[in-house]
Design goal:
Largest sheet of chain A: 9 strands, parallel
Oligomer: heterodimer
Helix content of chain B: 25-40%
Shape of chain B: globular
Strand order of the largest sheet of chain B: 1-2-4-3
Strand content of chain B: 25-35%
Shape of chain A: globular
CATH superfamily of the largest domain in chain A: Phosphoenolpyruvate-binding domains
Mean pLDDT of chain B: 94
Radius of gyration of chain A: 20 Å
Number of strands of chain A: 11
Distance between the termini of chain A: 15 Å
CATH class of chain B: Alpha Beta
Largest interface: A-B, 17 and 21 residues
CATH topology of chain B: Ribosomal Protein S5, domain 2
Radius of gyration of chain B: 12 Å
CATH architecture of the largest domain in chain A: Alpha-Beta Barrel
Helix content of chain A: 40-55%
CATH topology of the largest domain in chain A: TIM Barrel
CATH class of the largest domain in chain A: Alpha Beta
């Protein structure tokens, strides 16, 4: 169950200490943009020690490594893979080949350190080329379990202004969700960057959910609760899903082909949505 | 491991530790300042000496300014300072 992903700077000892206590389903320990070039070594060593000595039992751990056009990404993987984080997030992924290069090196490190578990990848798509290649990225290797849209770098690449309303990323959001769903994996939306604007965050998260995103990243712990709320099924949705499953069961018992609920035809997509809602509610302990 | 030059790591932010290492000819010289000195100085020094031992450091002057760092942060900052001081690329 991953609704919220919270970014934490990899070189901040205090923040790493409390990373799993802020309510996020996943925490992204960042070795990339949040760390200055002169502190890359320091952050890498701190994150490695944090993974070794702290118990991050309350959430999933994702490590954002540096991009493959730097001299840092292999060193990041050398240090981090032996500690078996749940996922690696490589940034600025523009094509399937980018992911395959990283996956191949991850395999080498896993073998070197006898890491039996194959660590998953969540590519960060934040270039125009990456958006256009989203489906091939999603299908590039079995390690890819989700894709994540990063709008800040993307809008710089698109040469447009990043706005709160987000019209400029509407196409990219749709393309990312469609690519992810076509590849049967999850899709994650870009963070809402105005830390103070709670209402704007909720609108943005609800819009992303409406498009089909699985969840949303955050750069502030203050946003986590709202994101979790928005991406969790409501009581009404759970009750409706139960009704759908009940009426389908009854219809099958009575040998009925077509069935309606509250005057609306219940067809396969509605049943599938109800199943997904109940599955999610179950994962959250709600049923 | 030989300490070739002065190097630093860490910060003075809360829950972190600032470490400075220097070449030294007379064994291990350790200077610790901590906001929790009375409660944890022995544990901090033990952790620091473990890391020095892991890196086989015999001669060093190490100055630590602790702001309440936990063990993993102390280990990480000392290790970073040592690597930076030894001329080893990381």
């Amino acid at each position: 169950m991953r609704r919220s992903m919270l970014f934490m700077p990899g070189n901040n000892a205090g923040m790493l200490l409390n990373a799993d206590a802020l309510g996020a389903d996943s925490v992204i320990l960042d070795l990339e943009d949040a760390v200055s070039p002169s502190e890359k070594d320091s952050a890498r060593i701190l994150v490695r020690n944090a993974l070794k000595y702290l118990d991050y039992n309350n959430c999933e751990i994702i490590i954002r490594i540096n991009s493959i056009d730097t001299n840092y990404w292999k060193k990041d993987l050398d240090e981090i893979i032996p500690l078996k984080p749940h996922m690696i997030m490589p940034p600025k992924i523009s094509c399937a080949k980018d992911v395959q290069i990283i996956a191949d090196y991850m395999k080498t490190v896993e073998r070197r350190y006898s890491v039996e578990k194959e660590i998953s990848i969540i590519p960060l798509i934040e270039t125009a080329l990456g958006v256009e290649n989203a489906f091939e990225i999603a299908k590039s290797t079995d390690r890819v379990k989700a894709i994540f849209l990063g709008a800040e770098d993307l809008t710089a690449d698109l040469r447009c202004k990043r706005t709160k309303k987000g019209d400029e990323i509407f196409y990219s959001r749709g393309r990312i969700v469609t690519a992810a769903r076509a590849a049967s994996i999850d899709a994650y939306d870009t963070p809402f960057t105005d830390v103070e604007d709670e209402e704007g965050l909720r609108e943005d998260a609800e819009f992303a959910k409406g498009l089909g995103f699985t969840g949303k990243a955050s750069i502030s712990p203050r946003h986590v609760m709202t994101i979790n709320e928005v991406f969790s099924p409501t009581v009404e949705e759970i009750e409706y899903a139960k009704e759908v499953m009940d009426i389908i069961r009854i219809a099958k018992e009575q040998g009925k082909g077509a069935i309606s609920l509250h005057g609306k035809m219940i067809d396969a997509p509605i049943v599938e949505r109800a199943r997904q809602t109940l599955e999610m509610a179950k994962a959250l302990g709600g049923v | 491991m030989k300490i070739k030059k002065v190097a630093t790591a860490g910060t003075l932010e809360s829950s972190d530790i600032f470490v400075q290492v220097e070449p030294n000819e007379n064994g291990i010289e350790l200077e610790l300042h901590s906001i929790v000195y009375n409660q944890f100085s022995e544990e901090i020094e033990k952790t620091v000496r473990e890391v020095l031992n892991d890196f086989d450091v015999k001669n060093i002057k190490i100055i630590l300014n602790d702001r309440g760092a936990v063990e993993c942060a102390i280990r990480a900052r000392v290790e970073t300072a040592l690597i930076r001081a030894g001329g080893v690329e990381n």
